Structure formats: C-alpha cells, structure tokens
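Revision sheet: structure tokens.
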Amino acid sequence: MVQESNIQIRQANIYDWDEAMALAWKTFLKFEAKDYGQEGIDSFRDFLTDSLLRRMFLMGEYPMFIALDGEKQAGMISLRNKKHISLLFVEEGHHHRGIGRQLIQIMEKYIRKEYLEEKITVNAAPYAVGFYRQIGFEDVAPQLTKDGIIYTPMEKKIY
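Predicted:
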C-alpha cells in the first residue's frame, strides 16, 4: 500500500463542512449512484443537506476528520452514535493511496479515546464492501435496503 506523505489528517471545523459534504456528494455520484435508484440517490442527498446533521456537527455530536492534500480536501470520515462510520469518502484522484485506511485508523483511535468503545460499525455501500472487508470489517447481516439505500451492516473490533 502506497501512503501519501503530503496528506495531513485533522479534525474538521466549522469551515470544513461545506467542502466535505460536496466531496461526499461528488464521489457518491461518480462511484456509488449507479447502484441506486432515484429514491436512494434522493435519500443520500437529503442526508447530506440535513440541517439537523449540520447542527449535530456544530455541537460536537457528529465528529468528522478530513484528509488534506495541501489546502484541498482529499477525503473525509464522520461518526455517529459514538462508534458508527456515517460517511467515508475519498476524492477520485486520491483513491488507492491509503487515505481511506488512514481515516479509519484515526477514527478508531478517536473512538477508543473519547468513548472507550471496543468496536466500530458501518453500513457499507455495495461499492465499498470489498474495501471494508480488506481492512478487517466483517458482515453482521446480509445486504439490506432502506429508503432506497443499499448497504451491508459490518463491524470491526478495535483494541
């Protein structure tokens, strides 16, 4: 695995929100939307633009980390319910460079330190299931669909 030495990862602040959500939307459209019908695409867009989600972020209840390549966001990861990866996206030009893995490792450390949790969970999109399995996540249920969103519930023990 090639690691990018010029990538910096830090916790997101108020000024990072719009760019992170735009990165998630653009990457979703490019790589994942083809697996969904219109209902799923609309549900995902509604999630990204939900004002309650933004308020939770501003109150510190929806932690997010971003990967920066210089001043530009190359990736992002967010957490809900103290142990569930809510969003993980890496910008197309930065795929296959270890950024997704690094973001998950940072989030695992954060979860252990802040919440003392022993596992991390995710509802993996069809496009991402292989990636999550490769880094140690295991399926905990078969593929499901809710509001047009297709996902496989997965988890990984963290120590």
